[in-house]
Amino acid sequence: MNLLTLCVIGYIVGSIPTGFLLAKFGSGIDLRNFGSHSVGATNVLRTGNKKQAALTLLIDATKGILFSLFVKLFVCNPYALVAVFFCIIGHVYPIWLSFKGGKGVATSAGIFLTLSPGFALVSIIIWALTAKITRVSSLASILLSVSFTVLTLYGYIVGDAKLDVLLFAIGTLFFLLYTHLDNIKRLINKEEEAVAIK
Questions:
Q1: Residue 80: inside a domain, yes or no?
Q2: How far apart are CA 150 and CA 5, in angstroms?
Q3: How many Å apart are CA 22 and CA 19, to the nearest integer?
Q4: In a domain, 197, yes or no
Q5: Alpha carbon of 12 to those of 9, 35, 84, 90, 101: distances in Å?
Q6: Is residue 130 part of a domain?
Q7: Is 194 strand, coil or helix?
Q8: Is 24 among the domain residues?
Q9: Which of 45, 47, 193, 198 could covalently link to 53 via disulfide, CB atoms 3.0 to 4.6 Å apart?
Q10: Do residues 76 and 56 make contact, with C-beta atoms less than 8 angstroms apart?
């Protein structure tokens, strides 16, 4: 299987609009016209349905886990992580929803778990604690990727972390910072609102 085919498969897997489908058919809510207009777990949580939000988070992460695990086990290509990155791109720009999806955080976290479970678990704990204490999803999401990148860099310098995983972590960090640009501006201006859990 060539790299282009893998990228297409990764994109399609990432494009599965979990939050949109759960909210639309479970609660009759079109997330594209609700809250932040994102189809990610945080906007599902804004609808007040915690179970749907948790399920969205789980499935979006599973998309990343399953595809990256498939690539890791069955693909012998030094550039295979490029295809894995397309799984995140698919989540953010799903073809089924006019290229308007989520922020890519849950899918990235799932991929991180496959690439480096130890570092990913620490990063997810940081994400969970930040989200619980501040209720600011964007801040927690940014810290998830920042912490994973820093830990992977540390692992590369003093341990056995691979260069391709480090490059993937750095690339994902910049991409997630891009998807959170508006949130970062609001954080700087102290205008970012906490997620209200009904």
A1: yes
A2: 31
A3: 5
A4: no
A5: 5, 26, 11, 6, 13
A6: yes
A7: coil
A8: yes
A9: 45
A10: no
**Structural domains in the chain (count):** 1
C-alpha 127/C-alpha 143 separation (Å) is 6
Please tell me the distance from the alpha carbon of residue 195 to that of residue 79, in angstroms, as a whole number. 38
**Residue 167: domain span:** 3-188
Whole-number Cα distances in Å, 171 to 78, 111, 149, 180: 16, 13, 9, 14
The number of angstroms, rounded, from the C-alpha of 83 to the middle of its chain's C-alpha atoms is 15
Contact 41, 104 (CB under 8 A): no
Provide the 3-class DSSP secondary structure of residue 23.
helix
Per-residue CA distances from 182 to 8, 58, 114, 170, 177 (Å): 28, 25, 29, 20, 10
pTM of the model: 0.94
- Measure the CA–CA gap between 1 and 189, rounded to whole angstroms: 47
Task: Please list the rounded mean pLDDT of every run of 10 residues in the chain (198 residues).
Answer: 93 96 93 91 92 96 97 90 97 95 96 97 97 93 97 95 96 97 94 72
Please report, as a single letter, which amino acid is at residue 52: Q
Residue with tokens 């989200």: 131
Q: The tokens of 26 are what?
A: 């479970």
* pLDDT at residue 86, as a whole number: 98
Which structure tokens are listed for 74? 């069955």
For residues 80-114, one letter each, b for 16 or more C-beta atoms within 10 angstroms of the residue's C-beta and e for the rest, the string is bbbbbbbbbbbbbbbeeeeeebbbbbbbbbbbbbb
3-state secondary structure of 158: helix
> Would the CA dihedral through 134, 137, 142, 146 be positive or negative?
positive
